[in-house]
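Reopening this ticket.

The earlier resolution said the output was attached, but the attachment link was broken on my side. Pasting everything inline this time so it's all in one place.
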Amino acid sequence: MKTFLGIEFGSTRIKAVAVGESLSPVSSGDHTWAARYQDGIWTYPLEEVWAGLRDALSRLEGRDSVAAAGVSAMMHGYLAFDKDWKLLAPFRTWQNTITGPAAGELTRLFGFNIPQRWSIAHLYQAILNGEEHIPRVAHLTTLAGYVHHALTGVHAVGVGEASGIFPVDSSTLDYHSAMLEQFDALIAPRGLPWKLEDLLPRVLPAGEPAGNLTPQGAARLEGLLPAGIPFAPPEGDAGTGMTATNSVAPRTGNVSAGTSIFSMVVLERPLEKVYEEIDLVTTPTGAPVAMVHCNNCTNDTNAWADVLEEAAALFGARPGRGELYIRLYQKSLEGDPDCGGVLVCNYLAGEGVTHMDAGRPLVLRAPKSRFTLANFFRAQLYSTMATLKLGMDILAKEGVRIDRLTGHGGLFKTPLVGQGYLAAACNAPVTCMQTAGEGGPYGMALLAAFVLLKRAGESLETFLEERVFAGASGETIRPDPVTARGFEDYIRRYQALLEVERTAIEKL
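Inline output:
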């Protein structure tokens, strides 16, 4: 049987998913890892990239049947290399909120929102900081781009991934030429020995071949995959999430919820204003997308689950991890629609949408609040999507229409719970497919299949709609009016809580 392999470096797991000729998942393997906070930087050592990838692949069945593969990863961040591909500075991930001056100046220069996590913001901040490595930079890329180059020798990324490095022009499917010129003019007085375009990876749309696994790349994998396998353009987790949920056509959208949470809505028309809360990126085929990206989602919830698991162990109860989450999620359904006055801010890291440079997880209640386990955990789950709601409300005011919103990622593994809360938060029907928990690596596997299986003139939209998801089953939940009103009450108090969060960041 021929299979197609998708590899994704998420924030908490490195996962490999293989799909068969029916384009449904047939095997998977994963490796758990975690970001490190070192010297004020969220990072992952590159040696862990390779150890984790080998571990994930070793758990995958049928590796000898892989006909095409692709690599995806958490978007954005900063990986700078010299001419010999030697790393010049520790990998700076999307979690870092250390580029405020650079992001603000570039947003004003371009008239286009440049979030702090974008690669160009990290590069320009390093220039502003006078970092010693800057004159020696010869290659700038993302985590997906780095792994792809190491495996194939090709310095390229998919157009969706590229749109989180530097603004992309959807009409040319390449970096925005006028903005490239503006950036080069901005840094010209510094006398650097390079132009930005020379550093950036080549941009490729979905379906284009992007090299083959080289003998050197196969050696990095210690023979787990044979040399010669064709590779798709590397994509970010946003693009793979859109693919995995059949959300690449206008008026479709998806929400990916795990360590971070973000929504992607494919636009029919440009937004009227520039919003710091909204990224403008693209699908893997280059169509414009409004992205609401929030740094914080389930990390604080996971921490509380650990504490509750420890408490249960005091009484000799040792529920499995999966069962623990299911019970807590289901218990939250017994809570009040507004969480009984219990408020949670889940900011472990900084949050660009609400302009926080750091995070202090908080639980706040008044003496009259109904502080029960159900209300507490409901507030925890509301908090995972509260910041996202603030951004989605902006799109609603812009008149952006959404016919279909699909959820995927760990938050949706427990049936119906997170899905129902999200429908209430966004006031839109939310669908979860059977592959909701697979998310990005499944989408990357589909993009790998598209390289080999696409027909002449066939679009990615048609490929997904007619050959992958035709007849696919899924569970759709429409907004419950009572829950929606409760969430609105919660979000009003949550916005006031953010002032407490700011004070905590400043004082503690």
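Reporter confirms the inline version is readable. The chain is about 35% helix and 20% strand. The chain has a mean pLDDT of 94.
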